[in-house]
C-alpha cells in the first residue's frame, strides 16, 4: 500500500486536508521518544488505497524544534512514496521555502496550493501550471475547507513516482561547486547511513550539527569540508553560509516563482476582514476584556446548565442504572461479597466517578478547538505578550502555557521552541500551574457538591487562580532566580477562517478518545489498586477501611493538611494517587468514601463529599489539587527537558510551597467571607 506524508506550515490547512483524505479512518498517538502528536490514517476508499501520515506543522527542515526533527527524520528513514506539501495560497512566498526544502530531500513531491477560494475571491491569482513547470513537480490548486479539487490532488499523489533536482535553478555557481566537492567526500558515508547525497552535502555546507554527528566523518574529511565552507563564505557578502543558501532559495522563490506567476490578493478598501476584526480583538484597550469575555462564556456553557445537564444524566446512568444492574447480575449468580464490592465500589465507583465529567470535558475541548481553528488563539498569544513581559516572559511562552490547559507533558515539550534558556526554564516551572484536563473531574465534583448555582464562576475562578499564581511566581522568579531581559516576540497571525464541522468533530473525538483510553486503562488499574489497599491491612488480611493500608498512610500525612481544612486521611491519601494521574483523585475518593456510605449508592459521590467537606475546605482542596506536583509523566518530562535533577527538584519544591501557601490563604479567607 502506498504511503503518503503531509507536510506544511502551521495554519496552512494541513489538518483540514488530512481530515478530508481520511475521514474517521485515523488514529492518534505520539512519535517514538517524544510527546509530539502523531496522526496516521487510511485514505478514504473512494479515493484509493494509501496510508496518510500527518507530519507536524513546521516552517523549515532546520533541526531547531522537535517538530522539524520529527518531520525530517521521518522522511529520511521511512522514505514515504510521495509527499504532499500543503501551502497557504494567501501567503505563498513564505510557504514555498518549506517546499524547496522538502524537494531537496529526494522524495517524489506534489504541491497542494490551498485556500485558492480565498485567493480568487480577493482578486488574487496563482498560475499553478507555470509554477509546476518551474518546480518540475505537480502543483494542484485546492480548497481543503470547501472540498474543492481534492480528487485531482489524490490522483496526482498516487501517480507521482519521481524525485527532482532543482539545485541548478536555485543555487549560484559557487554554491554548486562547493556542494559537488562535498558530495565527492561523503558518498561512502551517505550510502552507509542511507542519506540522500545532494541534500546531505547541502546540510554540511549549512553546518547542520545533527547531520555532522550522524555521519561521524573522519577528522580529515571534516577539516576538508570546513575549508570548502570557508571558501564558499568568502564568495558572498552575507558572510554566513547558512544565510547565504537561505537567501538563494528566497531569491528563487521571489524572482522566478512569485513575481512571474502570482498576482497578490487585493485588499478591499486597503483592509481585509481579518484586519478589521483585529482592530477590536487585538486593540490595546479592548483586547483583554474581549479575551476574558470569550473564556467566561466558554466556562459558563461548560460548567453551567449545558454541561451540568449532560453530566447529571451520565451520573444517573452510571451510579443508579448500571451499578444496580451489575449488583443484581452478580447477586443472581451468587458472586462473593468481596467481588461485588470490587466491581461496584471499586471499578464502577472509581472509573464512573471520572466518566461522569466527560460531557463537560468534551464541551470545553469543542470550544477550544473552534478558537484554535478560527485563528483566535494566535491573537491570544499577542494579547498576552504585554502582560507576560511584566513578569519576565515573552508572548512565546503563552503557547506552551496554553497547551498546559490540555496536558502538561506536551506543554513542557513545547518549550523547546523558546530560544532563550532563561525563558525556557522559567516557562517549564510555571506550566504545571495551568490546570490540565486531568484536574477537571476534581473541580467538577466539588463544584457540583457546593457551588451548583455559581458553578461556572467558581470554575473560571479556579482556572484564573492558576494563572494568577503563575504570574506571581513569574514576578518573584524574575527578580531572584531568573534575572535578565526577555527576548522579542515575533509570530505570524493567520487569517481568520470559519472552522469546519468535520475537522472540529474529529479533533474533539481525538481528545475524548484519549480521555476514555485513560479511564479504561490507567484509572481502571488504579481503581483496583486503591480498592485492595482500602480493604487490606498491613498484614495483608481483609479489614475495615478504617484499618486498611491506605488508612495508615493517610493518618500519617493528614496532620500536614489540617491547616488547609481537609486534614482527614481519605482526602489526604487521595492526593497521593493523584501523583500517578490527577483523575485518580476522584476515583480514589469514589472508592474510599463509597465503601462505607450508603449515600454513594443512592446518589453518587456528591452527597458523600458534602458530608466530608465544607465549602471552605472544598475551595482549599481544589486550590491545592490545582497547584501541587503534577503527575509522574510530567515530572519525567520536566527532568528530561531541564536536563538537571537540581532544577527538577526546585520545580517540585516551588510547586509544593505555592500549593500549600495558596490553599492556606484560600481556606482562611473563605472562612471569613462565606
Q: Could you walk me through the main structural features you see in this protein, from its secondary elements to its overall organization?
A:
This protein has 674 residues and is an alpha/beta fold. The protein folds into three domains: 2-167, P-loop containing nucleotide triphosphate hydrolases (Rossmann fold, 3-Layer(aba) Sandwich); 169-261, Helix Hairpins (Orthogonal Bundle), CATH 1.10.287.1770; 290-673, no CATH class. Helix content is 64%, strand content 6%. The chain contains 32 helices and nine strands. Strands 2-3-4-1-5-6-8 form a seven-stranded mixed β-sheet, with helices on both faces. Strands 7-9 form a two-stranded antiparallel ribbon. α22 (440-450) crosses α23.
Strand content: 5-15%
- Biggest sheet: strand arrangement: 2-3-4-1-5-6-8
Instruction: Summarize the main sheet.
Output: 7 strands, mixed
Counted up, domains total: 3
**Helix amount, in percent?**
55-70%
- Helix/strand class: alpha/beta
Mean pLDDT over the full residue set: 82
As residue ranges, the low-confidence spans are: 596-603
Distance between the termini: 65 Å
Number of helices: 32
Q: In angstroms, what is the radius of gyration?
A: 28 Å
Explain briefly what this protein structure is.
The chain is α/β, with parallel strands linked by helices. The protein contains 32 helices and 9 strands. The radius of gyration is 28 Å and the shape is elongated.
Amino acid at each position: 500500500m502506498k504511503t503518503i506524508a503531509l507536510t506544511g506550515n502551521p495554519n496552512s490547512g494541513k489538518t483540514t486536508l488530512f481530515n478530508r483524505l481520511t475521514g474517521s479512518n485515523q488514529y492518534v498517538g505520539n512519535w517514538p521518544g517524544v510527546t509530539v502528536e502523531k496522526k496516521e490514517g487510511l485514505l478514504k476508499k473512494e479515493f484509493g488505497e494509501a496510508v496518510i501520515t500527518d507530519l507536524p506543522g513546521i516552517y523549515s527542515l532546520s533541526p531547531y524544534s522537535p517538530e522539524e526533527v520529527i518531520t525530517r527524520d521521518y522522511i529520511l528513514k521511512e522514505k514515504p512514496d510521495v509527499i504532499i506539501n500543503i501551502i497557504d495560497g494567501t501567503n505563498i512566498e513564505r510557504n514555498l521555502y518549506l517546499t524547496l526544502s522538502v524537494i531537496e530531500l529526494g522524495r517524489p513531491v506534489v504541491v497542494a496550493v490551498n485556500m485558492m477560494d480565498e485567493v480568487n475571491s480577493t482578486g488574487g491569482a496563482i498560475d499553478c501550471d507555470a509554477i509546476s513547470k518551474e518546480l518540475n513537480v505537480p502543483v494542484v490548486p485546492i480548497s481543503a475547507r470547501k472540498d474543492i479539487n481534492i480528487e485531482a490532488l489524490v490522483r496526482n499523489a498516487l501517480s507521482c513516482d519521481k524525485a527532482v533536482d532543482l539545485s541548478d535553478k536555485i543555487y549560484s555557481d559557487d554554491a554548486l561547486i562547493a556542494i559537488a566537492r562535498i558530495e565527492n567526500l561523503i558518498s561512502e558515508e551517505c550510502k552507509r547511513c542511507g542519506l540522500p547525497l545532494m541534500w546531505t552535502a547541502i546540510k554540511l555546507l549549512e553546518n547542520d550539527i545533527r547531520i555532522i554527528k550522524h555521519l561521524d566523518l573522519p577528522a580529515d574529511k571534516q577539516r576538508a569540508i570546513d575549508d570548502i565552507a570557508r571558501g564558499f563564505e568568502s564568495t558572498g557578502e552575507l558572510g554566513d553560509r547558512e544565510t547565504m543558501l537561505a537567501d538563494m532559495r528566497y531569491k528563487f522563490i521571489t524572482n522566478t516563482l512569485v513575481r512571474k506567476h502570482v498576482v497578490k490578493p487585493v485588499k478591499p478598501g486597503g483592509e481585509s476582514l481579518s484586519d478589521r476584526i483585529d482592530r477590536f480583538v487585538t486593540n490595546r484597550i479592548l483586547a483583554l476584556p474581549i479575551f476574558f469575555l470569550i473564556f467566561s462564556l466558554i466556562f459558563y456553557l461548560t460548567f453551567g446548565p449545558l454541561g451540568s445537564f449532560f453530566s447529571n444524566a451520565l451520573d444517573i446512568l452510571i451510579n443508579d442504572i448500571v451499578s444496580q444492574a451489575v449488583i443484581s447480575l452478580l447477586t443472581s449468580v451468587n458472586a462473593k461479597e468481596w467481588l461485588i464490592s470490587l466491581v461496584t465500589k471499586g471499578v464502577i465507583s472509581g472509573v464512573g466517578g471520572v466518566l461522569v465529567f466527560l460531557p463537560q470535558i468534551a464541551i470545553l475541548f469543542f470550544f477550544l478547538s473552534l478558537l484554535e481553528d478560527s485563528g483566535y488563539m494566535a491573537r491570544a498569544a499577542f494579547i498576552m505578550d504585554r502582560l507576560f513581559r511584566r513578569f519576565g516572559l515573552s508572548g512565546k511562552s503563552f503557547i506552551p502555557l496554553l497547551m498546559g490547559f490540555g496536558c502538561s507533558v506536551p506543554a513542557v515539550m513545547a518549550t523547546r521552541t523558546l530560544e532563550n534558556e532563561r525563558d525556557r526554564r522559567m516557562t517549564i516551572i510555571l506550566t504545571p500551574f495551568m490546570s490540565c484536563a486531568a484536574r477537571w473531574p476534581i473541580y467538577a465534583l466539588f463544584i457540583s457538591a457546593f457551588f451548583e448555582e455559581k458553578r461556572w464562576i467558581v470554575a473560571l475562578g479556579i482556572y484564573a487562580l492558576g494563572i494568577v499564581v503563575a504570574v506571581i511566581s513569574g514576578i518573584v522568579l524574575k527578580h531572584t532566580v531568573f534575572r535578565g531581559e526577555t527576548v522579542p516576540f515575533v509570530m505570524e497571525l493567520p487569517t481568520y477562517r470559519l472552522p469546519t464541522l468535520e475537522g472540529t468533530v474529529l479533533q474533539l473525538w481525538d481528545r475524548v478518545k484519549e480521555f476514555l483510553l485513560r479511564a479504561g486503562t490507567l484509572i481502571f488499574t488504579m481503581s483496583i489498586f486503591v480498592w485492595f489497599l482500602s480493604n487490606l491491612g498491613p498484614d495483608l488480611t481483609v479489614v475495615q477501611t478504617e484499618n486498611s493500608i491506605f488508612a495508615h498512610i493517610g493518618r500519617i500525612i493528614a496532620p500536614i493538611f489540617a491547616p488547609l481544612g481537609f486534614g482527614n486521611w481519605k482526602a489526604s491519601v487521595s492526593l497521593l494517587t493523584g501523583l500517578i494521574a490527577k483523575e485518580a483523585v476522584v476515583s480514589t475518593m469514589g472508592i474510599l468514601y463509597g465503601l462505607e456510605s450508603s449515600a454513594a449508592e443512592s446518589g453518587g459521590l456528591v452527597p458523600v463529599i458534602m458530608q466530608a467537606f465544607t465549602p471552605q475546605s472544598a475551595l482549599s482542596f481544589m486550590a491545592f489539587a490545582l497547584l501541587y506536583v503534577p503527575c509522574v509523566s510530567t515530572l519525567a518530562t520536566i527532568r528530561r527537558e531541564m536536563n538537571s535533577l537540581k532544577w527538577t527538584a526546585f520545580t517540585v519544591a516551588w510547586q509544593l510551597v505555592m500549593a500549600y501557601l495558596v490553599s492556606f490563604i484560600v481556606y482562611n479567607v473563605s472562612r471569613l467571607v462565606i
